[in-house]
Amino acid sequence: MIKTRFAPSPTGKPHVGNIRTAIFNYLHTKSKDGKFILRIEDTDRERFIPGAVSYIEESLRWLGLAWDNEEKIHQSKRLKIYQKYADRLLEEGKAYKCFCSKERLTNLRQEQEKQKLPPGYDACCRKLTVGDIQKLEKEGKIPVVRFKVPENPKEVVWDDTIHGKVSIRTDIQEDFIIMKSDGYPTYHFANIIDDHLMEISTVIRGEEWIPSTPKHILLYMSFGWQPPKFAHMPLIVGRDGKKLGKRSGDTAIMDYRERGYLADTMLNFLALLGWNDGTTQEIFTREELIKKFDLHRVGKAPAVFDLDRLNWINGEKIRAMKVDDLIKEVASFNSNFMKNKDTDLFQRALTVMQTRMVTLKDFTDGSGFFFEDIKYDPRLLIFKKSTQDDSLGGLKNVLELLGQTKGIKSPKDADKIMKKAVASQSLSNGDVFWPVRVALSGEEKSPSPAELIWALGVEESVKRIEAAIKLLED
Ligand code: GLU
Asked: What is the dihedral of CA 361, 436, 463, 344, to 10 degrees?
């Protein structure tokens, strides 16, 4: 069975890169009817941030990345298991206790630096006898447990689903720590024990973990276990080709929610950071992603995080939505915004804005004029190539035609009125369209006057145009 895991360390709010890892793992299993596990790797107590687990869960929930394990898996609650396996390696002589003090290790590193030698532990405690160990323990010294890196193989090779054959020398690998003196396992140790016990079929994670993989494979070998498959995802870089930073978009995934991006956009956009379906298609529904995602089509080249592309996808997704669904999105984005607003007006305003929005915030920030009294400088009512009289003429004309109308069912109906107003008095477009737009929205840039009339309704439009005429005549 295909089984993957997302194994975040709770060290803060998950960033876009972390979430891309979750997405690739999720899509890989869902396309094959497999299982996707969430495992919290919280054995590094120094880096633990309270609340981080909730951030992780909240982010996954927002994106609809449901994990399949009912019980929460926290490595910090599995210490006995790791201890048991560490004891096994100790008994088999594949690991040893190390009592070296911090000072000794620091001196060692400094010495190695001075002599331009590769850094690493010098295996000093490998030589300790049972007697030595007993004595040190009696003195109250608490050891760490180090893995005895075997002399052979001198090279670890694996067939990475994304990178192909990877081979890394292990003869310069130091005897790394598997159990710390606080009784917690290190990442490497807990990670491989759990991947084995949880029968993870493919480990999908960022490329930055490639240097750790030989350690993992050596550990699997020492237990006589078959390692899982590995698939290391390409780096994410900014448009400048440099590692993704805060400026180029590397922030918490939930920041994107706050900025008005849809969950489906983030899923789509992040899935494309390293993967494509072999065509030029860029907009995918959730179902399509699940159906089409293929780990073998993930490239090695760094994936570019392009904010323009993100905006474009969001706009496309917004436009592809039914207005009712979009209303639900706006409501969950900002529930306050809908309060005390006329539902029909809300729906029409959103329909008009839908074609222009890039984010949900564009609507909540930029559509106040539909719902509130508007204020503007009366001079704004006069188009720069027009005069006060002609503008007044335009407004009055539209007002009169609105008074005669038998109802406006679409922006097209309103557009007919606008065009008629221009034609009937030999006015220019600027004499009519411009002042009506300002009269209805109070803004220089807004949806077209016809859309505004339709959205606001005849009554409100008449009221606003009358107010504008009064302002110009005063
Ligand atoms: N806990 C590691 C992290 O935070 C997991 C790496 C892995 O997937 O093996 O990224």
From this structure: -40
